[in-house]
Specification:
The protein is mostly helical and about 180 residues long. The protein is about 80% helix and about 0% strand. It has six helices and no strands. Helix 1 packs parallel to helix 3 and helix 1 runs antiparallel to helix 4. The longest helix has about 60 residues. The C terminus is likely disordered.
């Protein structure tokens, strides 16, 4: 009889261990995918930053403008920002870039400016897809942190919910759902 209970206890411990390892591996898979998505977003944002930096010289050479052009880009060169902050700053700079494009029609005749404009448009499509991919992974990851039994593994490993790329977190979504 004692052997029977001992075997049951060993079986239960084995099942719990296998469940823990299985859930842990799913978390590790999400963490790898999140890091990959962050890296791809970072690469695309850096490319956008470089394109906007190159456009400063082209705008100055093609138009008679006094003062700073794309001031945000000049200021960003010396700052260390998160991808979230960099994306917001670049969005403002792209709006300023578009203002110069509309205000100075001669820029549309400059081949290098047109290439930068096209590359910025392409990067917008790319960053949109990367944001969606990132947010989809974060949604699944955050759900695992909140759902039983994976929330136990999350507590043991000290995993925390992550914010979406647009800066929202899971709490914002839950609060807004209750307001509807």
């Amino acid at each position: 009889m004692d052997l029977f209970f001992g075997l049951i206890i060993v079986a239960i411990v084995c099942i719990l261990f296998i469940t823990y390892v299985s859930i842990y591996n799913v978390y590790q898979s999400y963490i790898i995918r999140i890091n990959e998505a962050e890296s791809n977003i970072d690469s695309t944002l850096r490319k956008r930053f470089d394109l906007l930096s190159k456009s400063i010289g082209i705008i100055k050479a093609s138009c008679d403008i006094d003062g700073e052009i794309l001031e945000n880009i000049v200021k960003l060169r010396s700052r260390k920002l998160s991808n979230f902050e960099l994306d917001r700053q670049l969005y403002d700079s792209i709006n300023e870039f578009n203002t110069y494009k509309e205000k100075y029609k001669e820029l549309s005749n400059v081949e290098s400016f047109v290439k930068i404009e096209q590359a910025l448009t392409d990067s917008e499509t790319e960053i949109f897809a990367l944001r969606k991919y990132y947010n989809d992974i974060i949604t699944k990851y955050n759900k695992m942190i909140r759902m039983f039994p994976s929330n136990i593994v999350a507590r043991l490993c000290k995993y925390q919910t992550k914010t979406y790329f647009d800066g929202k977190n899971m709490e914002d979504e839950i609060i807004n759902d209750f307001k509807l």
